[in-house]
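Backbone-to-sequence.
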């Protein structure tokens, strides 16, 4: 997989909080990976506490950005099954425009290097999350962007769908792979992710082994650490310093999934609902950080989502990587495992738990990170 390099300052900690000091260093044009699955939940949770404040509604509604996925894709989509379950595509944008230019030169188009399909089961008490590796070689469908046709490709990297066709093409590509209609779409960028972590007061993780990665400028000794936004971003993109990892994007995905669970626990424990000022700061930051489909593009819709997802904790979320194997033509790419992937998509389509046999032989779920990062 391609190297990534970051802008976080090098830090070593032994059970203490780490914060960047001084000016941040600009990094080369390498893509970062962002753990974004919690963003929609974060927005929803913090909005619950401000439900009666008209001004807050007005202000936060003005922060939100929406994309009309339904209008863009029309009727050429999988069947909309109304069985009480929900599917959300959550993506991380690597655009270098605006404040994100500290991560490299703006090349005119953004790619999504983090993609997670969130399936919320009927009853809204548990969820499954399937990460799609950015370097997966897939058949990209025909799309359109800004009124112009974008031809498909038989062998294209998954994350190029977002680059050439924006959110609608990303959704269409995921739907063509899975056969599952996405009910919602959520996107978050670098700057928004960092600010959100900082607004929460950081996220606590515990490492049983050292993590040393010069590429992401992250150096953590064994112990408990409270990571601020800059270092959290470094953690979710690191791969070279992971003990026992293969140095690939697949190992990074597993680390992201571990971080997500820690972030969910932090949201539960942060006490925002009893602190109006902190509540507003987090809600303001979160709503500025995301782009959603137009069906979620309001405080009232996000609040409704929060109420329906309120019973799902980190212990009720199963995470996995789409079953893949290394591409014989290019070791820096992966290919979907047809049989195992079908098991995943069939299970979610039928609102069932994903069978353990689905990850058999997959390069995406070997090892794991729970044994040294919690």
């Amino acid at each position: 997989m391609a190297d990534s390099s970051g802008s976080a300052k090098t830090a070593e900690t032994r059970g203490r909080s780490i914060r960047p000091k001084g000016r941040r260093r600009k990094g080369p044009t390498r893509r970062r990976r962002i753990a974004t699955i919690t963003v929609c939940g974060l927005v929803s949770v913090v909005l619950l506490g401000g439900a009666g404040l008209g001004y807050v509604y007005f202000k936060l509604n003005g922060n939100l950005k929406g994309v009309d996925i339904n209008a863009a894709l029309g009727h050429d989509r999988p069947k909309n099954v109304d069985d009480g379950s929900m599917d959300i595509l959550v993506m991380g944008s690597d655009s270098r425009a605006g404040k994100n230019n500290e991560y490299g030169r703006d090349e005119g188009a953004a790619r999504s290097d983090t993609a997670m399909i969130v399936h919320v089961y009927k009853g809204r008490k548990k969820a499954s999350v399937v990460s799609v590796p950015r370097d997966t070689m897939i058949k990209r469908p025909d799309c359109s962007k800004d009124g112009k046709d974008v031809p498909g490709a038989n062998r294209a990297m998954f994350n190029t769908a977002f680059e050439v066709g924006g959110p609608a093409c990303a959704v269409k590509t995921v739907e063509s792979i899975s056969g599952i209609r996405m009910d919602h779409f959520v996107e978050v960028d670098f700057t928004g992710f960092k600010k959100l972590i900082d607004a929460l007061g950081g996220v606590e993780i515990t490492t049983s082994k050292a993590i040393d990665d010069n590429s992401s400028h992250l150096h953590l000794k064994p112990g408990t650490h409270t990571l601020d936004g800059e270092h959290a971003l470094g953690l979710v993109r690191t791969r070279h310093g992971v003990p026992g990892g293969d140095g690939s994007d697949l190992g990074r995905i597993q680390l992201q999934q571990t971080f997500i669970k820690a972030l969910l626990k932090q949201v539960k424990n942060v006490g925002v609902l009893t602190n109006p000022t902190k509540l507003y700061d987090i809600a303001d930051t979160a709503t500025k950080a995301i782009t959603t489909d137009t069906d979620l593009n309001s405080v009232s819709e996000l609040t409704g989502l929060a109420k329906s997802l309120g019973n799902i904790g980190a212990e009720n979320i199963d995470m996995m990587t789409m079953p893949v194997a290394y591409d014989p033509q290019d070791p820096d790419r992966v290919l979907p495992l047809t049989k195992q992937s079908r098991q995943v998509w069939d299970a979610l389509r039928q609102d069932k738990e994903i069978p353990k046999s689905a990850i058999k032989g997959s390069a995406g779920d070997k090892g794991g990170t729970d044994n040294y990062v919690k």
